[in-house]
Amino acid sequence: MKRNRLWVRTVILILLAAAVAYTLYANFNKDKIQKVSVGSQAPDFMLVDMDGQKHKLSDYKGQGVFLNFWGTWCKPCEKEMPYIDNQYSHFKDKGVQVLAVNVGESDLAVTKFAERHQLDFPILIDKDSQVQTAYGVNPLPVTFLIDPTGKVIKIHTGTLTESMVNDFMTKIQP
After folding, report:
1. Strand order from edge to edge, sheet including 123-125
2. What angle in degrees, to the nearest 10, is found between the helix axes of 75-91 and 107-117?
3. Nearest Cα to 36, choosing from 151, 130, 166?
4. Whether 76 contacts 120, CB under 8 Å
5. Gap between the Cα atoms of 107 and 137, Å rounded
6. Which has more confidence, 16 or 120?
7. CB of 10 within 8 A of CB of 83?
8. Band of pLDDT at residue 32, cut at 50, 70 and 90
9. Core-most of 21, 118, 121, 145, by most CB within 10 Å?
10. Is 66 helix (H, G, I), strand (E, B) or coil?
11. Average pLDDT, the chain
12. Digit-coded pLDDT (tens) for 55-84
């Protein structure tokens, strides 16, 4: 009986030690994941929009790219969408492209959201979160301004006002 209790306690202690060791390891290595920073080349990616059209970031070289990560459940994201759409209508013929990357929600939820807000810019869905991970996105919303050479010139986390969207699109306009 005492021997069984000793074994159970030993197993529990080993499991606890392994959990603590893993937690320490994960915390020390989380910063080693390459995150996108201002001045770095934006990582290339290819995602499909709601119409089935493929969008590869490198295809937009020579244009400014307003790369926005968002979710339908995110209230700050919802607030800024009409501003982004309005400014997109002014800048799309001036060499500025909006790529709105949804963070892996269902096509139905994203389609309903886009229809409700009458959004005209390309909405891409990052189903497996690879682009979100590559850009180190957390929390939402976050916007990356990418200049015509493909370099990240600004990263903004949080809600955007219409004047901020206008300023940001002006900055990346070729």
Report:
1. 123-125, 96-102, 64-70, 142-146, 152-157
2. 60
3. 151
4. no
5. 21
6. 120
7. no
8. very low
9. 145
10. strand
11. 88
12. 999 999 999 999 999 999 999 999 999 999
Structure tokens of 25?
């390891």
In the structure encoding, which two tokens stand for residue 89, read together? 């209508």
- Using alpha carbons, list the distances in angstroms from residue 137 to 12, 49, 112, 133: 36, 19, 24, 6
pTM of this prediction exceeds 0.85: no
Among residues 150, 125, 116, the alpha carbon closest in space to that of 49 is found at 125
**Chain segment 105-159, per-residue pLDDT in tens:** 898 999 999 999 999 999 999 988 889 888 988 888 999 999 999 999 999 999 9
Listed in sequence order, the DSSP H helices in the chain are 2-29, 75-91, 107-117, 130-134, 162-172
- Contact (Cβ atoms closer than 8 angstroms) between residue 42 and residue 75: no
Q: Please tell me the number of Cα atoms within 13 Å of 31 on its side-chain side.
A: 3
DSSP 3-state assignment of 36? coil
